[in-house]
Amino acid sequence: MAKVLNKVYRLRNYAELQMPGYTEKLKFTGGQEFHIVNDVLYMSGHPVPGNMQVHIIKWIEDNPNLFIGDTRKF
Fold it and tell me: 22-35, pLDDT tens digit by residue?
């Protein structure tokens, strides 16, 4: 069973994330949305590559002060 069924997080400000095995940091703009559905992370409507999923989701979970919960019901 999925841990996160449907959550949207919006980044408060610019942030960088150092991914293991990458020399360049990932750079995210303030206001950028991270949508997690059934434990799969989507950005701009597209799933994030599989090798990045766990690291970015963990970063979101470990840094709640960087994000605003923005889950909407339609």
Answer: 899 999 999 999 99
Q: Report the predicted TM-score, pTM, of the whole model to 2 decimal places.
A: 0.88
User: What is the spatial distance between Cα 35 and Cα 13, in angstroms, rounded to a whole number?
Assistant: 17
Taking CB atoms within 8 Å and a gap of at least 24, the contacts of 68-73 are 68/9, 68/10, 68/12, 69/7, 69/8, 69/9, 70/8, 70/9, 70/10, 70/33, 71/6, 71/7, 71/8, 72/8
- CA angle at 26 for the pair 25 and 28, rounded to the nearest 5°: 135
